[in-house]
Amino acid sequence: MTGSVLVGRAPSPGDISTGYDAVVVGSGAGGLTAAVCLARQGRRVAVFEQHFTAGGYTHAYRRPGWEWDVGIHAGGEVFVRTPVARIELDGARASGVVLADGTQVRAPVVVSAAGAQNTFGTLLDDGDGERSAVMRRGFPFVLLFLGLDGDPVEPGLPRHNLMVTDGDCDAFFDGTGVRTSGLFLSFSCAKDPTWTAQHPGRSTGEILAYVQPELFEPFQGSRWRRRDPAYLALTAELTAELLDQLHRHLPRTRGRVAYHELGTPLTAEHFAGWPGGSLYGLAKDVAAFRDGRRPGTADWLRPRTGIDGLYLAGQDCLAGGFLGAVTGGLLAAHEALD
Ligand SMILES: Cc1cc2nc3c(=O)[nH]c(=O)nc-3n(C[C@H](O)[C@H](O)[C@H](O)COP(=O)(O)OP(=O)(O)OC[C@H]3O[C@@H](n4cnc5c(N)ncnc54)[C@H](O)[C@@H]3O)c2cc1C
Asked: Whose CA is nearest to atom 31 of ligand 1?
């Protein structure tokens, strides 16, 4: 992607040590929280991130003339463009990771903040059929990045987020309703008192909505920026639907949209590594949690994994969303330091 705000650095030969006190897989909110907590307790920590910038679902984007800040900025020793291929076990204990280029990195503590499916299904491949069987993906999303003419006041952009749940949400989640649901509109530029001085006459924002995963199944395996014309037609239709919703809820944005770009579940899978492009990782529905009468399918998800030395951080070890990811990182570090 051109013009992302790059955080972290790609390692040069010799940069990565053969051993650390702890390695963290994934540099989203969960991974970075765990890494910072461990480092502040004096541990030598390396974070490995597959993408070319750190931050996971919270990294910032730029396009010529436009900037979207969807979350946090990291600092520190974070190796980007460094996918982890495998978590190493020494007997029944985690002992480090193997990077995609074959480099072995040893550590008595491995924190995986790359999601449960990636951790147990790919990085560990522990063959635990029971565990795999109960891992159900959450819903994916489409994300429309917007550039608007005018400072945030002119198009009437709110400082608060808008969550729109009109329509039949149950039918959507049953797969019998509309293609998108659960609209979320956010304009961080309106909350930033320094925005207008830095970007006079311009505003940015994001519209996020859950989307039916089946729509993107025909395009699985296609490559970013080399997608099929049918995929481009689908994204154009979804973009038009989301713009309609924007104008319905914020009418003063009409005629002011100067730039838009749609991210899909395939984009999320490509950049943030979540299988199926899930927004909140594994399904966080009623069945996932114990309801007092029966156990939840996700009850086994904990920062302490049952494998000595391996900890799960991020939104899959606790709850979905930014707070769930950060709390998951905090708890994983706490368990690792215990
Ligand atoms: C536009 C947008 C708006 C949002 N708004 C909100 C909001 O208002 N409130 C809220 O609560 N949540 C929101 N969310 C969701 C929230 O951002 C996420 O739930 C949270 O950031 C997830 O953090 P995480 O650390 O668990 O995962 P991620 O941030 O996805 O981090 C996982 C990282 O692991 C990396 N990785 C995966 N596999 C490997 C591998 N093999 N080797 C190395 N690295 C790997 C990925 O590249 C990724 O960087 C929003 C998300 C988006 C996209």
From this structure: 28
DSSP string, 156-182: T--SS-EEE--S-HHHHHHTSS-SEEE
- The tens digit of pLDDT for each residue in 177-232 reads 889 999 999 999 999 999 999 999 999 999 999 999 999 999 998 988 889 999 99
Centre of ligand 1 to C-alpha 57, Å, is: 3
Query: In total, how many domains does the chain have?
Result: 2
102: CATH: 3.50.50.60
End-to-end CA distance of the chain: 40
Examine residue 15 and state whether it is found in any structural domain, yes or no.
Answer: no
Tell me, in angstroms, the distance from the centre of ligand 1 to residue 264's CA.
Answer: 14
Q: Which two tokens stand for residue 187?
A: 């304009």
- 258 by Cβ neighbours in 10 Å (0-12 / 13-18 / 19+) ranks as middle
Residues spanned by the domain of 183: 141-277
Find, among 28, 10, 2, the residue nearest to 328 by Cα: 28
DSSP notation for 23-53: EEE--SHHHHHHHHHHHHTT--EEEE-SSSS
